[in-house]
Target: Pyridoxamine 5'-phosphate oxidase N-terminal domain-containing protein
Amino acid sequence: MAYPLVNPPVDSVEELEAVVGTAIPAIANKVRDRLDDHDRAWIAQSPLVFIGTSDAAGRLDVSPKGDPGSVALVLDDTTLVIAERPGNRRADGFRNILQNPRVGLLFVEPGRSETLRVAGRARIARDEPFFDRLVVRGHRPALALVVDVEEVFLHCAKAFARSRAWNAEHWAEHPLPAYAAATNLYRSTP
Model:
């Protein structure tokens, strides 16, 4: 059951814009349909990307992917590739993509507050010639995510600035259990 709200939720674009306003033309028109030289440079310096996917029923998943150096390889102005590295073998994003190829990517460069947003259609590739360019520590990936870019734009720095995510002085010590302890807890729960 959904948490009960005291007031009716915002349920139209008009209501939303009455609260947040509308974007100035320079911001509203910053979305492009292909990667430019700045985007390529940004991706080349991004070791981390968050990949948003959705299954056929609309259930969402966001998965981080990381590599030393650049996490993605740009093949051309409308195509980029992200290698699949060994991990937990859940393949949640890939399972979603098999049902719904729409993806959203958020490229992050540590220490930098802006992010690069990319949206498009994804395919799961295996054993393509460009896999030779995705080798990390002597390991060639078995699969890669190929994204056909439909939208790309730079996102402002306000979220990282507000959160102080890159400022170590504001990193809190959290009394959370270690990952292994939490995983064991879930395994023992009926």
About this structure: Strands lie at 48-54, 60-66, 72-76, 79-83, 102-108, 115-126, 143-155. The helical segments are 13-20, 25-28, 37-44, 92-99, 158-163, 179-188.
